Amino acid sequence: MKKLSILTFFVLFAMFSHAQRPQGHVSIIPRVGLDIANLSGNKIYYTDNNSTTKYMKSKYNARFIGGVDVEYQLLPMSSISLGAYYSQQGCRFPDYRSNVVSETGSESNEAENWEKQRWKLDYVLVPLMFNQYVTEGLAVKVGVQMGFLTNAKVSYTLNLVSFDKEGNVVSEKNTPVNTDIKKTLNTMDISIPIGVSYEYQNVILDLRYNLGLKKIYKDKDMPKEKNTFFLFTMGYRLN
Q1: CA-wise closest residue to 32 among 237, 224, 236
Q2: What pLDDT score does 49 carry?
Q3: How far is CA 146 from the centre of its chain?
Q4: What is the pLDDT of residues 81-128, one digit of tens each?
Q5: Distance of alpha carbon 169 from alpha carbon 192, whole angstroms
Q6: Statement: residue 23 has pLDDT above 50
Q7: Could you tell me the sign of the dihedral formed by the alpha carbons of 143, 227, 88, 56, in that order?
Q8: Which residues make Cβ contacts (< 8 Å) with residue 99, sequence separation at least 6?
Q9: What is the pTM of this model?
Q10: How many Å apart are CA 116 and CA 24, to the nearest integer?
Q11: 191 backbone φψ class: left, alpha, beta (φ>0; ψ -120 to 50)
Q12: Three-state SS sequence of the chain
């Protein structure tokens, strides 16, 4: 029984060792997936039907990410990788209504409905990651990531609603709005990605949380909002 246990151990060890990539091995890993992003501290203030000023926080929004990693095997259980991704980030807001106040201070018979508000911030991400394999196929990872802003827009539909004295809707006017805010934002972003991945037959599922370190606005008087996002990708190791 003891000899059988020892033999089993060496067989499993040999299989495990064989599965690891040798030191110096270079792999190319294309990836596609979802970028689930938000902006920390992003708020909108509005006036409700009771003329009370309120605010709402932005929500996470799912968009596209795609790119490629080049991974270098430092040791059989450790590697580093350098990537380049196109990442669609930003956030979204729920629909809300803000009463329109006249110059005399009394409420008018109009209200503004803000619908489908989306902040679309697109970056080219360059992550440098250290990957530590804790068992066959399973790795934990941490690194540093640079982001370069390529596009920044805020889009929404402004619905102006008019009422009569009884509160019935008299008219509605929908106006699509698409505002470019790139000039107001920093062109470079820095974050710390922390994640885990699992690989089976060259298919790699990767989940990372990215903690933003730099505020997005250039102006020091603007809110200190930062990118915060999850990346979920599927990749394939080509070699």
Answers
A1: 236
A2: 63
A3: 14
A4: 999 999 999 999 988 877 665 444 445 577 778 888 999 999 999 999
A5: 50
A6: yes
A7: positive
A8: 47, 48, 49, 51, 107, 108, 111, 112
A9: 0.80
A10: 49
A11: beta
A12: CHHHHHHHHHHHHHHHHHHCCCCCCEEEEEEEEEEEEEEECCEEEEECCCCCEEEEECECEEEEEEEEEEEEEEECCEEEEEEEEEEEEEEEECCEEEEEECCCCCEEEEEEEEEEEEEEEEEEEEEEEEEEEEECCEEEEEEEEEEEEEEEEEEEEEEEEEECCCCCEEEEEEEEEEEECHHHECCEEEEEEEEEEEEECCEEEEEEEEEEEEECECCCCCCCCEEEEEEEEEEECCC
Residue 185's identity, in one-letter code, is L
Beta-bridged to residue 109, according to DSSP, are none
Q: Are strands 26-40 and 61-75 parallel, antiparallel or unpaired?
A: antiparallel
Percent of the chain with pLDDT over 90: 57
Whether 215 and 188 have beta carbons less than 8 Å apart is answered as no
Burial 11-25 (b: 16+ CB within 10 A, else e): eeeeeeeeeebeeee
Is residue 4 pLDDT above 60, yes or no?
A: no
**Residue recorded with tokens 């000039």:** 183
CB of 144 within 8 A of CB of 166?
A: no
Q: N- to C-terminal Cα distance for the chain?
A: 40
Mean pLDDT for all residues in the chain: 84
Residue written as token pair 């095997």:
73
Query: What is residue 155's predicted lDDT score, i.e. its pLDDT?
Result: 93
